[in-house]
Write a structure and sequence with these properties.
This protein has 493 residues and is mainly beta. The chain is 1% helix and 43% strand. The strands form eleven sheets. Strands 2, 3, 36, 37, 39, 40 and 42 form a seven-stranded mixed sheet that branches. A four-stranded antiparallel sheet has the order 1-43-38-41, with no helix packed on it. It has a four-stranded antiparallel sheet with strand order 6-35-34-33, with no helix packed on it. The two termini are 19 Å apart. It has two domains: 130 residues, Jelly Rolls (Sandwich); 328 residues, Methylamine Dehydrogenase, Chain H (7 Propeller).
């Protein structure tokens, strides 16, 4: 007999074949790895007292000058302000142009010339995609500034619940977004319908947009073949991401005010909300890879689950992809629509401190990290409420789990028998284990269990390789370490 430790490397690996993931975790949901130990993510509790009228596509939270905590949410048709207790107020600007809850494409009958293409062949990539509507939200002092790409106007809200957000005087129209720089300039992105233009107001004066010798208002066009998607502040610079590349803008002062530098090519962002700012700088999802910018140039982030994630995304709805930082655990999460789903229903997360990846199922459409509030705020894609996350361990009907790739019981030339399970679990009984055995890769699988991880347990199954699945059974902060199995020779096959 031999006690075999099930030493499974932290994080999910989902590239290549099933056998290539041996001794790695292959599938998971609602779990993370901390210092190499498997544990559940935190649960959630409802924060908003009233549901939004439709799916929330953007969130921001901040503290005003009276130390009151606030958060604002945007949908394709509304802008809502919430008090720190979650009381909702409609602050939608008068005359706001309603956008789209779902993305759509000019395809199908009438989308192209008759007989253009052959039956059964892929449609060429020439369709015009109409994005699902999202908002760019930021603060200018204590006030909110906002822009929807479908409406194009720049709005400001002065914290009065009875007064909706209003158009900023003299600001350009037909914009796709905005960002407030660390120097307190308001940037209009894709200004005045030019997909490459960045225009800014005078310093600390968002109503002065006409350049003169006495102010610092101005504009510039990026040298890019793409279209501006979004902007954010990273280490003293303002990062502008397009559909094809990345640009850094640095404050110079008069007369040029801002410089521009292309810092990355072939690294375009997949959606307007697919970037987050971390201690490492900015991290974002492209169409087929993840990228990081921390100064210098853009770097591709190696990803252990890229094959799975990028083949899983519903590309017709990829403009809904949104990212958020979960800084308490050194994580970035991306929520995306999978397969035939029209709404975000899955996620991929990266622990940038320990360089581990996780995947799972969760319907969230917008998010903001903790800081203003003690817990992160994430918007639900099913009931349009906003939830505080990392609270307790209640997941509704979902169950946290992780399942390994194959673990060889021998060199692969002999059938082995497993007779005992010796668990390594912190809370003793909050987790159960199942085993799935095979005699050869891609062969039929047989499931055994469940077995409690509360004490050594007698088990009986045979195979050449085994897969371990652990599932949370109680609402607790369990930990799974290195379980062991007692293996004996079972004869050749």
């Amino acid at each position: 007999m031999a006690l075999v430790p099930l030493e499974i490397q932290a994080g999910v690996y989902r590239n290549g074949t099933d056998l290539q993931s041996q001794n790695r975790w292959r599938d998971a949901s609602l779990v993370r790895w901390t210092e190499g130990t498997l544990r559940p993510v935190g649960g959630w509790e409802q924060k908003s007292q009233t549901a939004a009228a439709s799916k929330i596509r953007a969130l921001i939270a901040w503290v005003d000058n009276s130390n009151a905590r606030r958060f604002v949410a945007g949908t394709h048709e509304k802008l809502y302000a919430y008090s720190q207790s979650g009381v909702q107020a409609d602050i939608t600007p008068a005359g706001f142009t309603t956008g789209r809850v779902d993305a759509s494409a000019f395809t199908g009958y009438g989308a192209g010339s008759y007989n253009a293409g052959y039956y059964g062949t892929a449609r060429p990539d020439n369709a015009t995609i109409l994005e699902a509507t999202s908002w760019a939200l930021d603060t200018f002092g204590e006030n909110l500034v906002a822009c929807s790409a479908d409406d194009g106007k720049l709005y400001e809200w002065t914290l009065n619940n009875s007064t909706p957000a209003a158009v900023i005087s003299n600001a350009p129209t037909n914009n796709v977004g905005l960002v407030v720089t660390e120097e307190r300039f308001l940037f209009a992105l894709g200004a005045a319908g030019n997909p490459r233009r960045v225009q800014w107001c005078d310093k600390e004066n968002n109503t002065q947009w006409t350049p003169s010798a006495t102010n610092e208002a101005g504009d510039l066009d990026l040298q890019t073949s793409g279209e501006i998607m979004c902007g954010m502040n990273v280490r003293g610079q303002t990062l502008i991401l397009t559909t094809t590349d990345a640009h850094a803008m640095s404050y110079l002062g008069p007369p040029y005010v801002y410089s521009r530098e292309r810092i990355g090519t072939a690294c375009g962002i997949v959606s307007r909300k697919a970037a987050a700012v971390t201690d490492l700088g900015a991290v974002w999802m492209g169409r087929k890879a993840f990228y990081n910018y921390s100064g210098g140039g853009v770097q591709k982030v190696p990803c252990d689950v890229s094959d799975y994630v990028f083949s899983d995304i519903n590309q017709s709805q990829q403009t809904k992809i949104c990212a958020t930082t979960n800084a308490r655990f050194s994580e970035v999460w991306w929520f995306y629509p999978s397969g035939a789903s029209t709404e975000n229903d899955r996620y991929v997360s990266w622990n940038y401190a320990e360089n581990t990846w996780a995947i799972g199922e969760l319907s969230r459409t917008a998010a903001v990290d903790h800081g203003t509030f003690r817990q992160p705020l994430w918007a639900d894609g099913a009931n349009y409420h906003i939830y505080e996350h990392e609270l307790g361990f209640d997941y509704g009907s979902a169950t946290p789990f992780a399942e390994s790739g194959p673990i060889m019981l021998s060199a692969g030339d002999q059938v082995m028998s497993v007779v005992d399970l010796i668990p390594d679990e912190k809370t003793q009984g909050d987790v159960q284990a199942k085993f799935k055995t095979r005699f050869y890769p891609n062969g039929a699988e047989t499931e055994h269990g469940p077995y409690s991880l509360s004490a050594p347990t007698s088990v009986r199954f045979t195979g050449r390789q085994v897969r371990l699945r652990v599932e949370g059974q109680r609402l607790a902060d369990w930990r799974v370490g290195i379980n062991r199995i007692d293996v004996v020779g079972g004869g050749g096959r």
